[in-house]
Amino acid sequence: MPAVTGSKRRAVLNRAGLYLGLSAFGLLMLFPFAVVAFGSLKTVSDVNRYPPRLLPATQDVVEVDGEELELYRIEGQERVLVERVDIGIFAPPDDLEATVQAPTRDAERRGGFLDTETVEVDGEEYELYDVTIGGELVEGLVQLGSTTAGIFALPEDRDDTVTANVRTAQTVDSLSFQTSNFREVTDLQGLDRSLTNTLLVTILVVGGTVLTSILGGYAFARIQFPGRDAIFLVYIGSIMVPFVILIIPLYQLMVALGWINSLAALVFPFIFNAYGTFLMRQFFVSIPKDLEEAAVIDGASRWTILWRIFVPLSMPAIATLATFMFLYAWNSFIWPFIVIGGGNLDNHVLTVSLQQLGGRAANFPHLIMAGVMIAIAVPVTVFVLAQRYFVENVATSGIK
Predict the structure, then answer these.
(1) Residues forming beta bridges with residue 170, ordered by sequence position
(2) By CB count within 10 A, which of 97, 174, 179, 280 is most buried?
(3) Residues spanned by the domain of 195
């Protein structure tokens, strides 16, 4: 009994360790998605914040004397920034270690701006300043550097002030989701129209490919005609031809048909797919001929046999083909970028719009991330709702 108990304990621990490892790996894979998702809900200053943070937040403000001022936490107290000042670091020429700080507005160059007096210290030349420190004028100081500081006051008493470095001051923040980013990026780049175009093109490409692949696959699998196998080999061989080789002749064909800058050029060249025909043909070949012969004896036509027997039995293969074509059509970039002009915003798809958005909103990363979230919303939704079918389809595509 103790041995059995110890064995079960080890099995439980091994399984728990496996689950923990897989969970940690899954969270690691989801982290980039979380960064983009939360980044799309931030302000531009929050995205550029250092150190960075995952959740979106904005700095709190408080109204003081009719003016909205930013809140900071200075020495444990919440204070408002009332003024930013440049602080200079000064020292006597004979003792550069004895530094003092004072606002640069209280410093005046000796001799003026055009004829400033200088002094050489340790082989380096410094400008001389007369600086007012604590109400007293200190003459003959050299400036060693400067920094940005702020004057912070209590919201209820603006006379109670302290000076601190603005860059290192701790801000008082609250969780805030900037959903307006999606409307802003939509108005900037017209992503709503691009999303509609992408949905239309994807539906037509997927539907057309499934239809032609079913018809072609059935013809090559069940209908005897001269040269069938040779034609099938040539057709399948076209899969090995890289798409970049077909771009120029395909573009010339679109010009001849007058389909340049139209959605037709994104749909019709891709609804005839050799891979889809091959996939459906291989699945149809695996269906027993006895079913087809029985249907023929009962008086069924080939059309009835195809749609009443073969198609229902081939749903795993059809779902696999639809999955692959959905991902291809949704993420297609090179061909839409070539055949749809950059200025033709009405016919842009999401991939092209996002490429242009990267240039137009280069200084606004939160808008770029909002555009990315709009682009992946549909694929992610489809995956979440049909996760089981995705997994089954991938397994099926590897078996057939």
Answers:
(1) 73
(2) 280
(3) 182-399
Same domain assignment for residues 241 and 100:
no
Provide the b/e sequence for 261-290 (b: ≥16 CB within 10 Å).
eebbbbbbbbbebbbbbbbbbebbeeeeee
**Identity of the amino acid at 39:** G
> Residues 68-126: pLDDT tens digits?
888 888 888 888 888 888 888 888 888 888 888 888 888 888 877 777 888 888 888 88
Dig out the tokens for 220 from the structure.
């090559």
Asked if 249 and 384 sit in the same domain, the reply is yes
Task: Answer whether 0.85 is exceeded by the pTM.
Answer: no
- For residues 162 and 190, state if they share a domain: no
Distance spanning both ends of the chain, measured CA to CA: 47
Of 175, 190, 224, which residue is a domain's last?
175
Question: Residue 110: which residues within 8 A CB-CB, separation 6 or more?
Answer: 116, 117, 127, 128, 129, 130, 139, 140
Query: What does the alpha-carbon distance between residue 77 and residue 69 come to, in Å, rounded to a whole number?
Result: 15
HSE-CB for 106 with a 13 A CA cutoff: 21
| Beta-carbon count within 10 A of 361 CB | 20
